[in-house]
Each structure stands twice: as structure tokens, then as C-alpha cells.
Amino acid sequence: MRLEPRLPTGPVADAWGRRRQELAQIAPANRRRYRVLVVGSGLAGAAAAASLAEQGYRVRVLTYHDSPRRAHSVAAQGGINAARNYQNDGDSVDRLFRDTVRGGDFRARELGCHRLAEISGSIIDQCVALGVPFAREYGGTLSNRSFGGSQVSRTFYARGQTGQQLLYGVVQALLRQVEAGRVELCPQRDVLDLISLDGVARGAICRHRLSGALETHTADAVLLASGGYSNVFHRSTNAVRSNASALWRCHRRGALMANPCFTQIHPTCIPSGDPDQSKLTLMSESLRNDGRVWLPRRAGDHRTPDQVPEVERDYFLERLYPSYGNLVPRDVASRRARELCGAGHGVGPAGRSIYLDFEEAIEREGRGVIQARYGNLFSMYERITGVDPYREPMRIYPAPHYTMGGLWVDYHLMSTIPGLFVLGEANFSEHGANRLGASALMQGLADGLFIAPATVPAWLAEHPHPALPHHHPACRDAVEGVRQRIAGLRAIGGSRLAVDLRRLLGGLLIESCGISRSAAGLRSGLEGVAALRASFDQDLRLPDPETPLDPELERALQLEDYLELAELMLRDALAREESCGAHFREEHQSESGEALRRDAGFSHIAAWEWRSDGAPIRHQEPLHFRAISPTARSYR
Amino acid sequence: MSSSSSLSLTLRIWRQRQDEPRGRFLDHHLTGLSPDLSLLEALDRLNQQLLLEGERPVSFDHDCREGICGSCGFLINGQAHGLRSGTTVCQLYLREFSDGQTLTLEPWRARAFPPIQDLVVDRSALDRLLMAGGYVSVNIGSAPEANVLPVGRDLAEQAFEAASCIGCGACVAACPNASASLFVAAKLAHLELLPQGQPEASRRSRRMREQMDAEGFGVCGNQLECSAVCPKEIPSRLISRMNHQAMA
Ligand SMILES: Cc1cc2nc3c(=O)[nH]c(=O)nc-3n(C[C@H](O)[C@H](O)[C@H](O)COP(=O)(O)OP(=O)(O)OC[C@H]3O[C@@H](n4cnc5c(N)ncnc54)[C@H](O)[C@@H]3O)c2cc1C
Ligand code: SF4
Ligand code: FES
Fold it and tell me: Do the Cβ atoms of A482 and A208 come closer than 8 Å?
């Protein structure tokens, strides 16, 4: 298989503009004849569905939630980037472009990053027009704040609820189209397979979560915007129902999976205590502006924090990175925390946390100032842990957060299955090996508001297909496949609940393929997954439900997909013999413990092809840097 | 996270199968719970227990488990989202309850929210309220430059506060008339306060209020229970604002 990224040639700066001029179009009167199926109603899916419906296409949205407003995008806290130079600090499209390429450690396509930076400004215009109440200056203009990884103030925000407000904006645009009869919204649908005919995506199979019915939905193009897969680690900062199933089933149907091992671990999260704890809550990165990170100097020191005198505290980030201190990037901070906890310096349950201490900031600035800055985060922390962070340091630990890997897409956001487009966190594009803060919302909205609405019509114009009837063998076979799969799971009749195996899988994956990876660890991870897979196949307990509402079935189906995905992540991490961004291979580090990229061998996107024999094939798309030349990241 | 003690609780839960016209309360006992678990995590634990015993697990809605998606919500001892103010069910931790306590859990009850199963009800009526005009009619790609229309900071903050409603439906559940006034008033205020939402303000208000009746929500009787239980503390003055605007 040859990967064809369809990248424009010529100068980087106006490549998207040139490509847009070349894209085929469909006359307004004819658009009603085309049907587009969108899976997911988060930022990316809702934005794409609304935009295409406004253009006149017939859109149907399948979504897992009862309402599109509940999609996981609602939880994003910090903000969204855009190159606007409103603060007169010299920001520009070019600067945002460079920050994005460098931040991703040169493992993203230059042309994609440039397009994202170009589009960023229009996203803000659009969202403001939709009524998103961004923070404002007294004079009425938009405010900005700064975020990790950049020296300018380009992050637009709505308190700590930016994702919520952006999502409500696009969901309202979507509901307007539902009311106008241009979008059919189908909530409570769990998408379980893709329908493809002659290798072209033509629809999806889903299970109605309330009635249990398996449904067939056909269309002329399918847009997958089903979010990221961090929940493969079991506990992550994602909503507990976020899943990888739709994405994984498309992979099994022929969509290549790119860079699956690039998973971002966020350093400041509330750690796990009890085995029954269901998720990890993110504490915004902004806390590190004032909080000081430390651990006791002596390993195995079990005193309470107030009993550890100043000289016996190790402010390790300040010690190791004098110029960046507590504000080193996410991957670096996470690694140092893990190492010290591994060496017995960690605090809290099982020694798996570090202190984030505000004592000095409160003394310096006064409690009122700190409260004004971080009050909502402090009360969230207090609510979850029962500890008052104004009196005692917070205990935090890194947690799986965002997945940079995802289905491979070309410049038009089309996967290797013609007619299947992938948007938002479900695709791999633009972030490279590491995502900068506030850039995922930007990417999801760029995909949904502007890119797919230009490239999907071009596909429709050039590939007219006769309507696919539901009784077509391609549809019938796909439904039958899902039916048999469910029956097969029920027939196992074992003794272990899905959640039980799920916990073990998550623990294993975080150990072997988390903050730090080594060849030996990855290999034993692969063995561990194989063993879990065997337990699943032989010992799963999936009771017959008394009613169609059956979360246990949903869990089992997801776990089956997670097991396969986990294996691919381990393989991908094993094959990438370098350290870059969030992927840290212990064999490839400098003497001072920093990541060593190996551009000569690995300046490429790894894209995996599914094989039913368990031997997936690794394809490569080489990366070319014309506008910026690759340099090493340094934070010392 | 700090304590090592453990709790026992009795959960009296409204059990009603999808296909049953009526439900009933059933007592479920849980022991050895860490006070650091959330109430929803205790329900997870109960469900694992029930599954292993061959019983039907308790259905309840949830997703983000950090108070932002609006999925969770039921009555706890008669209070929507429980006793703690400004809090969703998923943010309730067991350390707030005492050992041996009995908690009664029952679903939102309102004509416009048909029961689905156990603690889950159908809240799609709230989305249909939004469809009836809860948006700004601007096509994608035709937006003016963002700073062309200035919005004063205070106004933006007020709009934000109104916009922070998570659509959980607690206001409806707490209202003796099962009115959706707080939800609708919040949406109207969010959009009317901003210049972008003003051109279609009166049409929006009329249509959303008509839709409220059509969905079977009751009328507001000024009891203001809604605001008291709202996890986002949406102020009841927005309802007065809505009524005022409608008469003007
Ligand atoms: C706690 C947190 C804070 C964050 N903060 C920021 C931030 O400050 N700035 C930033 O830029 N990014 C942030 N992010 C990242 C960002 O929120 C996400 O990357 C982004 O919202 C993903 O949007 P999406 O539209 O791709 O997917 P989602 O919003 O996850 O939507 C997925 C959709 O797909 C549907 N779906 C999923 N599976 C199925 C299925 N099998 N069948 C049917 N439907 C399905 C779901 O119902 C949902 O509608 C944060 C993430 C987290 C977890
Ligand atoms: S107004 Fe408050 S109680 Fe009502 S739906 Fe919104 S957040 Fe929930
Ligand atoms: S689960 Fe999202 S608000 Fe409670």
C-alpha cells in the first residue's frame, strides 16, 4: 500500500488557499441529493454537521450521548489558541505555525500545521458570532492569556470552561439545522462497524442504546469524529464513556492507524487512590505558574508535609531546570515525577504523588490573590480529595490525557478508506509527538468548521455513487457480523466482569507504555496483553440483560477493541527507536536524561495496516520540512 | 484520599425496568466503602456486585464525572443532586455521609421527562427547547471579525454565567410544577445579553416559551426551588428578567 497524503506542492504559506481553489464543487440545487453521515457530536462532529447542512447537504448525526451537548469536548478547561496579535506581542500565523511544528517535536506535517495556524483566526470570529462568551477586556475587546510552550499571549478562553462554551456554540448551530430539517440527529447510538462496498465507506452499523436494535445507516460519505482513545489506560482525564470503538472498527475495515503510541500524559492531575476510583481529574496546567513542585529528599519519608523542613525538600524541577523551573513542558515534568516516585520519594497512597505547594505564593501574594486566580480549581480539588489546598500542598500525579495518534488522514482529512473522513481527536493530524496546550480545540474546530466542509463536497462531486439499499449484502453482512460478535461474547459464559479485565489492562499499559518506555518493558507489555486477551476470550462474564439498556455489553465490546488497540500501541512504541515528544524510549536519552530524537531513521509518520493474522504492517509517510529546520528541544 | 476508615451504606433505589409501567424502592447494602469514593463510584461497585450475583444492575446516567457534562442527576433523600449546594451528583463524595446512613435515590419526576429505567429519564425535551430558537442564526463562514462588536467585560461575564447551565434538568425536577423556566431563562439571557444574539431576541423568546408549553413543562409559580438546586447556581432573577422582557 502506498500512502498518498495529497499535499499541495509549492510555497507553504498559501498552499491551503491554492488547494481550495482547485477543489471541485457541487451546485447548490444539487446538494440535497447527497447524504453525509457524521459519527460524533463533539466540537469536530457538530461543527462539520452544521457546516455541511448549511451548505445544503443532507446530514445525519449518530452519537452515543443522549444530547450532543454532553460530548466530551464540554470538559476542556484552559482555552483555544489563535494567531491574532490582539496583544501586540508580535504573534502571527507564522509564529503559531512554528510553535506548533516545534511543540510536536517535528513529527507533524508542516503543511497541516500551517493551515491550522491560518484558519485559527476565523475560528474565533465564527465562535464569537455564534454567541460564545469569551473573556473580554473592560473596553469590550477579547482577552487573551498565555499557555505552556509559547511566549505570546494567544489563548482565548471562557473562564475554566472554554470547551463547554465552544461546544454549546456549535451544538446550537447544529440544533438550528435539525430544526430546519437539514440534519437528522440520532442520539443514543453506539457505532459498532463501518459499511464499506468495494473498499469505499458507505455507512455505519450502530446499536440503539435504549432499544438494543442494530441499525443500518447508509450515506455517500462518512465523517468520523468520535474523539480520542486515552481511556485505553482505563483511568484518564477523559469522560468515562469516551471510547475507541468506532475508530478501531474503521481500522479493522482498512483505515490505517497512525502513531498510536503518541499519547500525552498530563503532569497535574488528581492521583488515584481506591481501585474503584473511575477517573482522573485534570488540574489545569496554569497552577504551575504559582505552585512549587517538591518531594522529600529522603526516600521513604512518611512525615506529613508540614513536618518536612525546608532543607529536606527537593524542589526538583527548579533544581534540574533553572530557566523553566516548574513550567517545563508536560512530558518533561511527568517523567521527572515518575522517576522520583519510582525511587521511593513519592508521597501519598503507594508513593504515587508529588506535592504542588502554594504556601510561598500565598505568603507572597496573599490568599485573596491566589483565590482569585485559582479558586475554582482549589475548590474542585477540595471536593474530590477532602483536603484544603490553601493549608496543605496539593498531591498530584501525571495522568493519560490526550491522544496525538489516531486514524491516518491525508491533507483532505480522508482516511485510507475512500469516502471515510476523520476529524478532531480521532485523527492523528497536526500535533506530532506532543500537543501544545490549547491546540486540540483549535484543531477540532478547524477540521469541522472549515476543512471538511471544503474537502468532503469535492469527494462527493467526483465520486457519485448510486444509493446503497439496506438489503444490499454489504449492509446485511455488516449487521450480521455485529450480531455474531455480540452473541459470541455472551456465549463465553465465564466468571470475570469486563471492568475487572479493563483495570488490569489499564495498569499494564500505563506501566509499559506510559510516561516512559523501554524495549524490555514493551515486550513484556505485549505478553501481558496477550494473556489478558486469553482471559477475555475464555473467561468473560457478560450476563444476559433483562432489558435492552445494557451498559455491560457496551463495556465488553469496548474492551475487546481496547485490547487490540493496546497491542498496537505497544508495537508502535517498540518500533519507534527514538524519543520524541510524549514518546520517551529509555534507550534513547542524553546523559542528562533528556529525549533524543533520531531524525535520520524516524522523521516519518508510522501508519499501521490491520491484519487479521495479528501481524500488522507498518507503513511510513516521510516528513519533509521546508519552512523550518528540525532542532532539538531544550528546557535547561 | 487521606482517611483509611470504611463506610457501610444502605441505598434505597427506585427500580423500574424499561418495560414496567411502575417501579418500587429496593434496598441495596454496601459495606467496606472508602470515604474517598464518589457516590457514583459506589453505584459502580454495587453494580459489579449485582452482576456477579446475577441481578440486574442499577441504570444511572453519567459521563464526565467532574460536574460539567450534565449527564448525571437524581434525587438523593428528596433533593436534586443531593444536599450540597452548587454540586452535581458526580461530585458527591462518600465522606459527606455517615456510616450506616440510608440514602434514598430516585429519578427526576416530570411529565416532560419520561422515565427510561431506574434513575434514568429522557431529557431530550431540553434539546427541543434549544431547537426552537436557542441559537444565533449565523452561517458558518460568514462571521465578521471578532472584535468588530465590542462586548463590555461585565456583560460578557453575565452572559457567561447564564451560559454555564449544563442542561441537567434538576431545576425541572425540583419545581413543584415541573417548569423549565430556569433553563429557558438562562439560555435567553445568555444570547440576549450579547449583541450577536439581539436581532432575533424577541422571536427566540416567544418560540422557546411556546415550546415549553408544547413539551408539557409546567408554569413557573415563583417557588424558586430551581435556583436552590441548580449545580451551576443559575440565579432565579433570570426568570424575572425573562418574564419582564416578554411583557415589554
Ligand atoms: C479534561 C480535559 C481538558 C482539556 N482541555 C483542553 C484545552 O484547554 N484546550 C484544548 O485545546 N484542548 C483541551 N482538551 C482536549 C480537547 O477537549 C479534545 O481533544 C477535544 O474536545 C476532542 O473533540 P472531538 O470533537 O474530537 O471529540 P469529542 O468531544 O470527544 O466527541 C466525540 C463524540 O463522538 C461520539 N462517539 C464516540 N464514540 C462513539 C461511538 N462508538 N458511537 C457513536 N458516537 C460515538 C461521542 O458521543 C461524542 O459526541 C482537554 C481534554 C480534557 C480531557
Ligand atoms: S438551570 Fe441549572 S438545574 Fe437547570 S438544567 Fe441548567 S444547570 Fe441544571
Ligand atoms: S457525570 Fe458529568 S456532570 Fe456529573
Answer: no
Span A195-212, pLDDT tens digits = 999 999 999 999 999 999
- The closest ligand to the CA of B168 turns out to be 2
How high is the ipTM of this complex?
0.98
Comparing alpha-carbon positions, the chain A residue that sits nearest to B72 is: A70
Residue A160's pLDDT band (boundaries 50, 70, 90)?
Answer: confident
Which segments of A133-220 are extended strands (E)? 155-156, 183-186, 189-197, 200-208, 214-218
Asked if B160's CB is within 8 angstroms of A159's CB, the reply is yes
**Which residue(s) pair with A216 in the sheet?**
A205
Q: What is the pLDDT of residues B206-218, one digit of tens each?
A: 999 999 999 999 9
- Indicate the residue of A51, A122, A549 with minimum beta-carbon distance to B117: A549
- Are the C-beta atoms of B144 and B93 separated by less than 8 Å? no
CB contact under 8 A, B160 and A158: yes
User: For A369-390, what is each residue's pLDDT tens digit?
Assistant: 888 778 878 988 998 999 999 9
Among the listed residues A179, A214, A216, the one whose alpha carbon sits nearest the alpha carbon of residue A197: A216
- Our answer on whether the CB atom of B159 is closer than 6 Å to any ligand 2 atom is no
Contact A73, A98 (CB under 8 A): no
d(CA B93, CA B104): 16
Question: Is residue A41 in contact with ligand 1, taking CB distance under 6 Å?
Answer: yes
| pLDDT at residue A149 in the model | 57
Using alpha carbons, select from B46, B60, B48, B59 the residue that is nearest to residue B94: B46
Report the predicted TM-score, pTM, of the whole model to 2 decimal places. 0.97
Identify the CA nearest to A334 among candidates A574, A120, A584, A527: A584
Task: Tell me how crowded residue A276 is: count the other CB atoms within 10 A of its CB.
Answer: 18
Q: Which residue from A minimizes the CA distance to B67?
A: A75
- What is the rounded distance in angstroms from the CA atom of residue A73 to the CA atom of residue A227? 9
- Contacts of residues A141-144 at CB distance under 8 Å and 24 or more positions apart, as own/partner, are A141/A86, A141/B147, A141/B150, A142/A84, A142/A86, A142/B146, A142/B147, A144/A84, A144/A86, A144/A87
Report which of A328, A404, A447, A436 is spatially closest to residue A81, judged by C-alpha positions: A436
Residue A588: how many CB atoms within 10 A of its CB? 18
Closest CA to A425 of A261, A224, A132, A581: A224
Q: Within 13 Å, how many C-alpha atoms sit on residue A184's CB side?
A: 10
* pLDDT-derived band at A27, boundaries 50, 70, 90: very high
Chain A within 8 Å of B198 (Cβ-Cβ)?
A: no
Predicted confidence band of residue B2 (pLDDT cuts 50, 70, 90): very low
Instruction: Please give the Cα distance from A167 to A71 (Å, whole number).
Output: 8
CB B62 within 8 A of CB B90: yes
Output the nine-digit C-alpha cell for A397.
Answer: 500525579
- In the reported structure, the alpha carbon of residue B109 is separated from the centroid of ligand 2 by a whole-number distance in angstroms of 15
- Of A68-72, A173-177, A320-324, which gets the smallest average pLDDT? A320-324
* B103 and A CB contact within 8 Å: no
Question: What type of residue sits at position B167?
Answer: G
In 3D, which of A514, A391, A486, A619 has the Cα closest to residue A192?
Answer: A486
Q: Which atom of ligand 3 is nearest to the CA of B88?
A: 4
Question: Is the per-residue pLDDT at A337 higher than 60?
Answer: yes
Interchain contact A544–B (C-beta under 8 A): no
A136, A172, A395 member nearest B156 (Cβ):
A136
Nearest atom in ligand 3 to B231's CA? 3
Inform me whether the C-beta atom of residue B159 falls under 8 Å from chain A C-beta atoms.
Answer: yes
Nearest CA to ligand 2 atom 8: B168
Closest residue of chain A to B148, computed from CA coordinates: A141
Q: What is the dihedral of CA B185, B189, B190, B191, to 10 degrees?
A: 110
